[in-house]
Each structure stands twice: as structure tokens, then as C-alpha cells.
Design goal:
By secondary structure, the chain is mainly alpha-helical. The protein is built from three helices and no strands.
């Protein structure tokens, strides 16, 4: 059962890596505030690690539990970074 969970978390992380990586790369290339980009990347990483830990342990509800909340926190950090990049590009 653990191998199934490891594979699922890996695939989920790979699926989300492209959006995060692109927004991070653009943020670095256009010269956004380094501290803000680092904080958002750090928050993203922490939520991703929590997601892995919760999924590996198999605790909580399938939907609406700690796994969902950690994914949503990860997603929100990435959306803020994307918004910051778009704001900088458009202004």
C-alpha cells in the first residue's frame, strides 16, 4: 500500500511542478523581490512536504481533511506567486 501512496504523491508533485517551476523562474528572471519569492517558494515546499507526510501516513479523510488542506495551501502559495509575476509583468 505504501508503494501506491508514494507513486501517487510523486505523480501529483510532478503535475504541479510545471506551474510552480514556471512561476518561480519567471519571478526570478523579471527581478521580483527576492525575499517575497523565497517566502512563497518556502511556503510551497512546506505545504508539499506536509502533503507527502499526510498521504504516506494514510490518516485523515480522503476529501476535506489534512491532505486537501495542505494541497490547497500549496496551491494558494503558487497562485499568489503567479499573481505577483503577472502584476509585475503588466505594470
Amino acid at each position: 500500500m505504501l508503494s501506491f501512496r508514494v507513486l501517487r504523491t510523486y505523480l501529483n508533485s510532478v503535475e504541479n511542478l510545471s506551474a510552480f517551476g514556471l512561476s518561480l523562474l519567471l519571478g526570478i528572471l523579471i527581478g521580483l523581490d527576492v525575499a517575497a519569492v523565497n517566502w512563497l517558494a518556502g511556503i510551497h515546499a512546506v505545504f508539499r512536504f506536509v502533503f507527502w507526510a499526510v498521504y504516506y501516513s494514510g490518516v485523515g479523510k480522503v476529501a476535506g481533511g489534512a491532505r486537501t488542506m495542505s494541497y490547497v495551501g500549496d496551491l494558494i502559495a503558487n497562485l499568489i506567486l503567479i499573481g505577483y509575476v503577472l502584476y509585475a509583468l503588466l505594470s
